[in-house]
Amino acid sequence: MLRDARLRFPWLPLVLVTPQPTLRASVTPASPGVGVRNELTTALYEFDVQSGFDNARLLAGAVPALEADIDLFLHQQQPDGTWRQVQAAESGRLTDELLAFERPPPGRYRLEVHTWAAAPATRVDVTIISVNSAGEPGEGA
């Protein structure tokens, strides 16, 4: 349909409709923190939200290898190199955690994975999915 519109109306700007591909990683916080966030109780995963894609929504999911209360905190890198928290997810579920962030501007981000309550060194599988304006996920979702 978009291609047909471009053929009939070539002066219209090309609309980007593809979200960036899905990202996957595993992180392992060393120990549970019961709300205390530091280098032992959190693990960080850095990634880029790329320009040139229709990234209308960012979804970050975390699934622990064993039952655990995982909290997620999304940070955006600022021009001076510091980090600013832009979103959080703290549900108390023991099987997964999901964070959503609307209209993420292009740039560098990091997902902080905090084990609120978990066995020490519990691996957490992380998935970052970009969704376009039509609600379609990026490749590999």
Count of structural domains: 1
Number of separate helices: 1
Named at the architecture level, the CATH assignment is: Sandwich
Q: How would a crystallographer describe the biggest sheet? A: 4 strands, antiparallel
What features would you highlight for this structure?
Jelly Rolls, four-stranded antiparallel sheet, disordered N terminus
What's the structural blueprint in terms of helices and strands?
Layout: H1 2-8, E1 23-27, E2 42-49, E3 57-64, E4 69-77, E5 83-89, E6 97-102, E7 107-117, E8 124-131
Antiparallel strand pairs: 1-8, 2-7, 3-6, 3-8, 4-5, 4-7
Structure overview:
The structure is a single chain. The protein is mainly beta and 141 residues long. It has one domain: Jelly Rolls. Helix content is 5%, strand content 44%. It has 1 helix and 8 strands, in the order αββββββββ. The strands form 2 sheets. It has a 4-stranded antiparallel beta sheet, with no helix packed on it. A 4-stranded antiparallel beta sheet has the order 2-7-4-5, with no helix packed on it. The longest helix has 7 residues. The radius of gyration is 18 Å and the shape is globular. The relative contact order is 0.32. The N terminus is likely disordered.
